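pinging the channel bc i need a second pair of eyes. not urgent but kinda urgent?? the chain im working w is below, pasted from the shared doc
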Amino acid sequence: MKTLSLKLEDQIFNDAEGVISKINKNRNRYINEAVDFYNHYNKRKILASKLAKESKLVRQESMSVLAEFELISHEDKTV
């Protein structure tokens, strides 16, 4: 486990202390869980951004393939 010195804005600290006192959790555990939650949140945002970027890269090719499949499907129905 790593030791960390942390400076929080007064309002954030006061809000956290208020929550901690109501949920009966120690400050260290609360901050660990908060950072873990925020890490998961940001990893999902990064992945979503990456997927959107890669989707744009293949969009035109995907539309071309779809058009070809539609032609094939249409030809099968006329035979």
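so The chain has one domain: 10-78. and The two ends are 70 Å apart (CA to CA). — does that match what u expected or am i reading it wrong
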